[in-house]
Each structure stands twice: as structure tokens, then as C-alpha cells.
Amino acid sequence: MPTDPVSVEPLKHPLHALTTYELNRRRRDLERAIEGISPDAPVQAELRRKLDAVIAEQDDRARPADTRPEPRSRRERDDQR
Questions:
Q1: Per-residue pLDDT of the chain (81 residues; tens, 9 = 90+)
Q2: I need a surface site. Which of 36, 55, 61, 65 has the fewest CB within 10 A?
Q3: Rounded to two decimals, what is the model's pTM?
Q4: Cα(54)–Cα(30) distance, rounded to whole angstroms?
């Protein structure tokens, strides 16, 4: 277990706007920060919440495009008016 505290930089962009590399680096930083602090530290829950969001974004990107909801075409939207 590291003895020096690990800091996690605040994001400059929302998760969905990060590159794959930035997302992977964010996940690694959060995992290291979680490992480096006491399990009962108050910040632990916040770090885990942020890590869960990063993992969810990675999972969404890994899902095949054909399983994602299809955006409606403009014509379909106009027909429903």
C-alpha cells in the first residue's frame, strides 16, 4: 500500500467527452487513490462513485453499436407531429 497520498485531478471535460486514453488514465488514477486511503475514510465513497461512473462509460463504449438505441431520423420525428 502506498504511503504517499494519491491525488485525482478534477476533470476538464465530462466523462463522455474524454478520449479512451483519458478515460483509462482516469480509471487508473481513481483505483490508485482508492487503494491509497483507509477504507473508512469519508472520501472513499465519493472516489468509488466516480470510479463507477468511469467504468459505466467504458462499458457503454465497449457495447456493440447495434445494441445501442437507434437515433430517430428527422423524418420520423416530423411524421409524429
A1: 444 566 788 889 999 999 999 999 999 999 999 998 988 888 999 999 999 999 999 999 988 766 666 666 766 666 665
A2: 65
A3: 0.70
A4: 9
